[in-house]
Amino acid sequence: MSAHTYSAASGLQHEEPLLFEHAHEAATSISLPGIDADTTHLKDFERRNEAKIPGLSEPEAVRHFVRLSQWNHGIETGFYPLGSCTMKYNPRVNEQVVRLPGLAHAHPDQPQDSLQGLLALLHELQTWLGEISGLPHVTLQPAAGAHGELAGMMMIRAYHDARGDVKRRKVLVPDSAHGTNPASAVLAGLHTVEIKSAANGRIDLAALKANLDDETAALMLTNPNTTGMFESDIREICELVHQAGGLVYGDGANLNALVGIARPGDMGIDCLHINVHKTFSTPHGGGGPGAGPVAVNDLLAPFLPVPRIEKHEDNYQIVHTGEQSIGAVFGSIGQTGVLLRATAYIAAFGRNHLHKIAEDAVLNANYVLARLKEAYHVPFPGLCKHECLLTDAYQERHGVKTLDIAKRLIDLGMHPMTVYFPLIVHGAMLIEPTETEAKETLDSFCDAMLEIAAQCETGDTSELHDAPRRPIRRRMDETQAARSPVLVWPQD
Amino acid sequence: MSIPADLKYTQEHEWVRIEDDVATCGISDHAQEALGDIVFVELPEIGRVVAAGEAYAVVESVKAVSDVYASVAGEVIEINEALESEPEKVNTDPYGGGWIAKIKMSGDTVELLDEAAYTTFLEE
After folding, report:
1. A300 is a domain residue
2. Are A318 and A112 spatial neighbours (Cβ–Cβ below 8 Å)?
3. Under an 8 A CB cutoff, do B37 and A423 touch?
4. ipTM
């Protein structure tokens, strides 16, 4: 193995106290205006104590936040193979598009004839998402993937209720599902039943059949599922659910494995949310804003949220009416800034090249799998889709667990993979490289993983148990943080 | 791993100690080991009537949040309130101080395994 310079090697990283620790009284860089009101209507809610705003000069405040920002790891600082999250690179051109003044400064309440360009782009996105998913009717309203799940489950419930089939309240959820699935079903007033996976990590048809009845509202599934495997019985699964009178909800979290190649609607899925921050490269995390459009087939179309964007001849309109609609699930037509980035991304590939996303994502995951499958235990052998699943079974014999491996990767300059998920696999490590990584980056990651595996075999595992040693924070005591969280700075 | 012979176990890795018509319940040593450090236990309410196999408590670890299923049907008559401030007892003493609830049995149970059967089940 060749020698490496790891990007986390070390450098000038500033320790940074909390703002309150920095602060010196009365030295604020901001001159607050005096109070010009004699009375308030706050009554009992009026502040009794002085607001303790930290006193800092402007450069002190700027340095504080810049230093904290240097502790961040993002897709723009390094490899980020977080399974089930599709941490692909967000092309800069998306940012240019969304900053065009006519888009950036639009207001939802300005006259609609002055919004035609924006509405045309969003309508185009609706059409494209409908075509990509095979489910032609789309709402752009939901503000995140789980919000899309909730909207979808509300539509499914409304569909059954509209047919007078009000006893359908049961939602089947495989034990490999994302935790948001059962949560969304319950929030929509339904209850869930867990379906055990078969030994190959896929849905157990017998277990599914045993739970289907005239109270089944829906099956919620992710395809490929969270083990990175394609549900090869998907057509039969959907047929079984439909025969029992239920609908199939698709969690689009793993759409990156299918985009441009296979369509959930063609598989028999009735309703799918699309995480545009995953498949269509809009920024992740940071608490939002996000977007989770939902695509549905003809059965569910009447129940879509309003307002929707419709095209009437050459005119785009925000339509607020829908007799059977579940109503609004967001304050406006959706998070336009995020949705426009997704529009730009899809347009950049175009209809004829979108499939390359899925092909390269699947190729990259299988390359990593092929390089690591001897050194690490593979619970479900065979080709994976866009992410590969390993476990710590071989390393556990040497007292090294998934957590140690993940922490050691930080020392080697990479964000760890997803760990301990899916829950059905002991010591799971879920690796999703995405299509945007070069072979050299994949090789650095695989070299690091092989180095860790080799280190386990030597018997000297202290470097793994102590990891990470290089970053400004060493291993956190996650247990203590969860048992006794300190959330408020003690003021006095 | 500890599997006391005087207890019964379930395939969901709960244990139960049946004395007359009262069942003391918790999660097995294997379960606490697999979950990792427990940081929170959501206890059932006293007086709640549970069916055998029904989720009646929740244990949260640094890795995952898991339902705890009732191994017997009946009424919850006592809960281990100590777990509210010391959830780590589930890790350190799963069969003793880590007990979760006592259920006054109404008859029904899920399939209960003895020590040998549970050991075999774990090996599979």
Report:
1. yes
2. yes
3. no
4. 0.73
